[in-house]
Amino acid sequence: MMKFAWDNYKRYAWGQNELRPLTRNGHIGNMFGGLRGASIVDSLDTLYIMGLMEEYEEAKEWVQNNLNLISNGEASLFEVNIRYVGGLLSAYYLTGAEIFKQKVVELGEKLLPAFNTPTGIPRGVINLGSSGTSWSWGWASAGSSILAEFGTLHLEFLHLSQLSGNPLFTEKVMNIRKLLNKIEKPHGLYPNFLSPVSGNWVQHHVSIGGLGDSFYEYLIKSYLMSDKTDQEAKKMYYSAMEAIETNLVQKSPGGLTYVAEWRGDGHLACFSGGMIGIGADDGPAEQKQHYLDLAAEITHTCHESYSRSATKLGPEAFRFDAGAEATATRLSDRYYILRPEVIESYMYMWRLTHDPKYRQWGWEAVEALEKHCRVDAGFSGIRDVYASTVSHDNMQQSFFLSETLKYLYLLFSDDDLLPLEDWVFNTEAHPLPVIRKTCLQEHGAKQDHGQTDLE
Ligand code: DMJ
């Protein structure tokens, strides 16, 4: 599947951001501020891990000769960070090739002006040119910044400091952490919108789906990536989890566990099965089993959202009201754009429990993708998961190559391929090594000699 997705991207959209498989051309979009090759940068580590070495070499060569970071466009800080910074960091750590280190540090430096706000909380949109001007998204309430955006920089920025020796990257994200730690949290929850000017919440809506999701993910992963030394992240994560459980976790009349705000974006929130699973073991002793059970229940609910559709793929949003149970109620919520979150949770739950049902569920997803999303020139999202005659959306998202296919591959691989004790996946599924306090220097030296460290 990866080879097919890649070959078609190469044939019809090489150097552009994403493939449009029906019209057989490329898509550039406006998320990456003039940066190109999103599918290439997002695929480097997947190709490498899968042993598609010829394809990996082509991708590397493109980065070397064509990834132009001199751009004046307006980019999403979050998207550039998770896809480009994350993709290049992983490629460097897996392969040791210097070019990735050079490019990622150069790109990281271009992101620094985004933090020049009265509070140091970055705005969502940044000009990648020399002005470094930044803006808030027009749709975000009253010039606010978004929790899942400024809260999803920590892992990558720590590694940027690690690689460049420049402490500024770490300082920027530690400042965000400090503010979030200090500010009052209604019912212990973190609302989605914060003013980068006053440092106050702009309104009180909370979500572990879009707008909130990866902030929580990065708390537990910061702790794990620090070799379990980042006690502050640990404390923030488990307090947030407690508040989420008390205020938001519910059971439907049909016995499905869900998070109360799953009204607008159920699919995105399905990453939380995996997150709660990887956090279970370090939780309070009396809660460990409970967290593992909760993770399994949420993953089960997400699987239900797939198995209740005609295509066996899940809708973008599913609900638990007006008689609905894990199904979309609005026409506009019925699409599937090759998203990874449900499969991501299968992969983590497989690693944590080895219950064969997670592989079965992953295989159902493979069959459904092959049947409904594979077209002659790539993979495409579909507009209605409940219609057995599908209509395609003509887009092969870069996260399909970076996440969906990588998590599927890992689900069917042995646990010692990228062991969870040694690697933490960023929110775009790019693996980053745990920073061992004891052997930092040794690790750096090894990577500089270009050794791989997959197992
Ligand atoms: C990806 O870019 C990342 O997983 C992000 O955290 C959420 N959205 C897409 C996939 O759905």
UniProtKB/TrEMBL annotation:
<comment type="similarity">
    <text>Belongs to the glycosyl hydrolase 47 family.</text>
</comment>
<dbReference type="GO" id="GO:0000139">
    <property type="term" value="C:Golgi membrane"/>
</dbReference>
<feature type="active site">
    <location>
        <position position="341"/>
    </location>
</feature>
<dbReference type="GO" id="GO:0070062">
    <property type="term" value="C:extracellular exosome"/>
</dbReference>
<keyword id="KW-0106">Calcium</keyword>
<keyword id="KW-0812">Transmembrane</keyword>
<dbReference type="GO" id="GO:0004571">
    <property type="term" value="F:mannosyl-oligosaccharide 1,2-alpha-mannosidase activity"/>
</dbReference>
<feature type="binding site">
    <location>
        <position position="427"/>
    </location>
    <ligand>
        <name>Ca(2+)</name>
    </ligand>
</feature>
<feature type="active site" description="Proton donor">
    <location>
        <position position="316"/>
    </location>
</feature>
<dbReference type="GO" id="GO:0005509">
    <property type="term" value="F:calcium ion binding"/>
</dbReference>
<dbReference type="GO" id="GO:0005783">
    <property type="term" value="C:endoplasmic reticulum"/>
</dbReference>
<keyword id="KW-0472">Membrane</keyword>
<keyword id="KW-0735">Signal-anchor</keyword>
<keyword id="KW-0326">Glycosidase</keyword>
<protein>
    <recommendedName>
        <fullName>mannosyl-oligosaccharide 1,2-alpha-mannosidase</fullName>
        <ecNumber>3.2.1.113</ecNumber>
    </recommendedName>
</protein>
<keyword id="KW-0479">Metal-binding</keyword>
<feature type="active site">
    <location>
        <position position="213"/>
    </location>
</feature>
<dbReference type="InterPro" id="IPR001382">
    <property type="entry name" value="Glyco_hydro_47"/>
</dbReference>
<comment type="function">
    <text>Involved in the maturation of Asn-linked oligosaccharides. Progressively trim alpha-1,2-linked mannose residues from Man(9)GlcNAc(2) to produce Man(5)GlcNAc(2).</text>
</comment>
<keyword id="KW-1015">Disulfide bond</keyword>
<comment type="pathway">
    <text>Protein modification; protein glycosylation.</text>
</comment>
<feature type="disulfide bond">
    <location>
        <begin position="270"/>
        <end position="302"/>
    </location>
</feature>
<dbReference type="InterPro" id="IPR050749">
    <property type="entry name" value="Glycosyl_Hydrolase_47"/>
</dbReference>
<dbReference type="Pfam" id="PF01532">
    <property type="entry name" value="Glyco_hydro_47"/>
</dbReference>
<feature type="active site" description="Proton donor">
    <location>
        <position position="79"/>
    </location>
</feature>
<keyword id="KW-0378">Hydrolase</keyword>
